[in-house]
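Protein in question kept in full:
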Amino acid sequence: MTRIELKKHALSELDVDFIRVLEDLIDALIANGTLRLTDLPPEALNKLHQRKQARQQLRDPLDLLDDNDESIL
């Protein structure tokens, strides 16, 4: 890798870490009542929801059923 590629890679890793910090901050602000989910734009809510689902799937790889899938009942 060139020096520029290494710097880009390092910046990407920092971005991923920073995004996680922002997610945790949003969760903390919601938990203490400073922020409500309805305060966020729909696009932001959708992205937060998608990231939480993706992290949950990584944590629970053997969870084969989608809890939100009502067609099973």
About this structure: The mean pLDDT is 87. The helical segments are 3-31, 42-59. The first helix runs from residue 3 to 31. Residues 4 and 10 are 10 Å apart (CA to CA).
